[in-house]
Design a protein that fits this description.
16 strands, five-stranded mixed sheet, 452 residues, globular, 18 helices, single chain, Rossmann fold, alpha+beta
Length: 452
């Protein structure tokens, strides 16, 4: 049988790992510079922690882990006989793979609340698992890169997170638009249009505005019981693109007015900074609204047709599900897989990667191979990524390997070189060759690296 991997998972080659590391390291450096601390949580959580937190659809997408040993020993016999999976699972599986990083984070905050200093700023870069139907750009195993602050209502953090997006994407060379809205404003629009009870239906339709146009949105709202008069009112409010104009339109709604004031405060903070990318207000931005209660974020790449490559928002009661009510939080997430695809398409990855081999040593007999091994240790001790071909084979064979590894320099070590305490350094790009001391080799490698 041919070896294979589970559907919806991937292997990553050395080049792909190096490129992904470049993205993660860039994100991590900005998180840490902004005072966020790393935590890690287990791959597996108790199913009781995960179940019921993502809605009915989410529960279906949880990977369950069978109990250790004879998992059928304590199985619900009646459920087994009836082939009733939903009833059977609690008796044969107590754990599941984490579905996201947010629910484990909420559990973490509740468990360690007495050890944490609030506001607590954390970041997490770890894989998550969803039993989703695999398709282009959607996998069953993928990484999330999250940063959250819990324990503060301060709107400074919304501005800080928007600027973190700006800095990360500037460093990666991806031109983006960072869009902001507020859940309370959307509540206000529904209230003013007289459809407070249909707020979710309205926002789900609005979220598709750029895909299906206003007529399509109107049709979808009509199907969901939102009448023509309400739709007209909503359309008239959507014409406004300034917060001041929307404040007037929502003057009759307390929650809408509060949402406008919150966003105005966020933009006041942002006015003190000089972002490189556009940070704009977008009234039609909705995101997963059952989750968020205040400001919401979305990031779109400008030069590639791709869905959002980042998103987040404020949630007022993250930890309430675990019995610690009233802890407000705000967080963002980077879509690492999509960012990778965007950077690949725009050719934004650096040509040289920090973990690539910088030099390969080659020897021609047993004695020079021993000398080359000593040179190898000397180079590695000075921070050079170096390797030695494992045997004094024919030069053609060793050169073929050097080309396959795309190594920029090779060091040839024969009897003359060994006698002089030197090596013949060959630049693989130019073909230039010179007899050099190891100190000169290090200089040549570092100056070549700076030149790229």
């Amino acid at each position: 049988m041919k070896p294979s991997i589970p559907k919806g998972t991937r292997d990553f080659s050395p080049l792909e790992v190096s490129r992904r590391k470049y993205i993660f390291d860039t994100i991590r450096s900005v998180f840490e510079k902004s005072g966020y601390q790393p935590i890690e949580t287990p791959v597996m959580e108790n199913l009781s922690t995960l179940t019921g937190k993502y809605g009915e659809e989410g529960d279906k997408l949880l990977f369950k882990v069978l109990n250790n040993g004879d998992f059928l020993a304590k199985a619900d016999e009646a459920a087994l006989a009836e082939k009733n999976a939903a009833r059977l699972i609690p008796s044969i599986s107590k754990r599941g793979l984490r579905y996201d990083l947010t629910v484990p984070f909420a559990r973490y905050v509740v468990m360690y609340q007495h050890e944490l200093s609030f506001p607590f700023k954390r970041y997490q870069i770890q894989p998550v698992w969803r039993a989703d139907r695999p398709q282009k750009g959607r996998y069953q195993e993928f990484y999330q890169c999250d940063a959250d602050v819990v324990g503060s209502d301060g709107l400074m953090y919304e501005s800080e997170l928007a600027l973190i997006y700006d800095e990360v994407f500037s460093k990666l060379g991806v031109r983006v638009e960072i869009k902001l809205n507020n859940r309370k404003i959307l509540n206000g629009i529904a209230e003013v249009a007289g459809i407070s009870d249909r707020m979710m239906e309205m926002t789900i339709a609005l979220d598709k505005l750029d895909k299906i146009g206003w007529e399509g949105v109107q049709r979808e709202m009509a199907d969901k019981g939102i009448g023509e008069a309400a739709a007209k009112k909503i359309e008239s409010i959507l014409q406004y693109n300034s917060l001041d104009a929307i404040a007037e339109a929502l003057a009759g709604s307390e929650i809408g007015t509060k949402g406008v004031a919150e966003l105005q405060s966020v933009f006041e903070y942002l006015a003190t900074a000089e972002p490189i990318n556009e940070i704009t207000f977008d009234l039609t931005l909705a995101r997963g609204l059952n989750y968020y209660t205040g400001c919401i974020f979305e990031v779109k790449a400008k030069d590639v047709a791709m869905g959002s490559i980042g998103g987040g928002g404020r949630y007022d009661d993250l930890t309430g599900i675990f019995g610690l009510p009233g802890v407000s939080g705000v967080g963002i997430s980077f879509g690492a897989e999509r960012i990778y695809d965007v950077m690949l398409e725009l050719e934004l990855f650096p040509a040289h990667h920090s973990n690539e081999l910088q030099i390969l040593l080659m020897a021609f007999d047993e004695a020079t191979h021993l000398y080359a091994f000593r040179c190898l240790q000397w180079l590695r001790a000075r921070g050079i990524a170096a390797d030695l071909y494992p045997e004094p084979a024919r030069l053609k064979k060793q050169m073929k390997y050097a080309n396959a590894r795309q190594v920029p320099f090779v060091a040839l070590v024969g009897e003359e070189e060994m006698a002089a305490g030197q090596v013949s350094l060959k630049n693989m790009a130019t073909g230039e060759q010179a007899l050099l001391s190891l100190e000169q080799v290090v200089e040549r490698i570092f100056s070549n690296h700076k030149g790229h």
